[in-house]
Design brief:
Strand order of the largest sheet: 8-3-5-4-12
Number of helices: 12
Distance between the termini: 45 Å
Number of strands: 14
Largest sheet: 5 strands, antiparallel
Strand content: 15-25%
Mean pLDDT: 85
Helix content: 40-55%
Shape: globular
Order of helices and strands: HHEEHEHHEEEEHHEHEEEHEHHHEE
Length: about 400
Amino acid sequence: MSFRGIKEKVLRFKAIFSDHWLLFVAIHSRFDTDYYRGEIDKMLTCGTELGGFAIFQCLRCGKGEHKVHFSCKGKACPQCGKRYARDSMIKIAAKLYPGVSYRQVVLTLPSQLRVLFHQHNDQNKLYAGFMKLAQDCLQELIQNRFQRKDYKIAVIVFLHTNGRDGTYNPHLHVILGEGALDPQTKQWKTFKTLYLKQLRLLWQKHLLCWVAEEFQSLKALVDTLWRDYPDGFYAHLGNNDKVPTKSYQGLIKYLTKYLSSPPIGVSRIVSHEGNQVKYYYQSHRTKSRVFETIDAQLFIGRMVQHILPKGFQRVRYYGLQATATFKKWYEIIASVAGDLVDAMASYVKRIGYSEFFQEVAKHNPLKCKHCGSGMDLVRLYPPNRGVFYDLLASPDS
């Protein structure tokens, strides 16, 4: 899709909220808070002059000019998602151990528990506990694999709360280092094979024990889930045989795309007419497109239920990936596992606005189309402050 086409889809997404948000919060008081209203307001003004802007001009020929609207960095904004995902990708790439191969793991939540998660009165605490379970489960799996309880593992966990159709479906994506550190000998022990059946049963054990403690009145439901899932809960144990060790970029790109997209990608919204929104998604079961036409109120509900709690970090680092531990063991693991730093070099570098714009739109917006020169910043206009900087203003103005 062209850059212009993407922009039109974003405007359609915003129009749904512009037309129906006030009625939505009047009906659903849970979302009638300063936090949710603020996130939606930021999204609606993102990319407009109300959100502030900078102006670049060509000082060589005097003809070229480009206005850059400031991003809102909001959690509901489809425009800011790509920048957030790109920055997240850089941070994650910088925290991978050189020479260590990684794979993706997916851990899911049974449908019987989703309503309880959705209605929980402290989702910040709930999600934090849910994400920590991934570390606990995979640590036990790998320690059993090596039959050593002191081995340390490398885990990065992403929280994803929606299914492909935008409904509420919390699950975890994990970047798992293919090995473990023996802290006694300081040796990195690699593996290529883990057993899915063991993972499913261990994930069931860790999740249900935690649920029984978190929701103490649900003993009957917990007993039912033990009985109804004799093979454990669904999990996916990525096989790295098809992904060369140096292909970190593909794995990180695949996972961080979830950070940048709204629950229903703006490119999948077909129409918005009156109170109806039509969109499509790719079905896991049939592998084909499924079209849905739903009320705009329901559509907004499907979007805002995935706005994470204020300040919540949806990417978390555990075990050897935790910040202090990473610094402690980096040199040791790098020396025994190998050196693949060059494979990640281009992803560790943060890029500027023009480079990022070129990635997305395939052209440099700060290059004068008249003479080809680079344009310079001449004016800054932050929201609620007026002109903050003006290179071309007269001294007396």
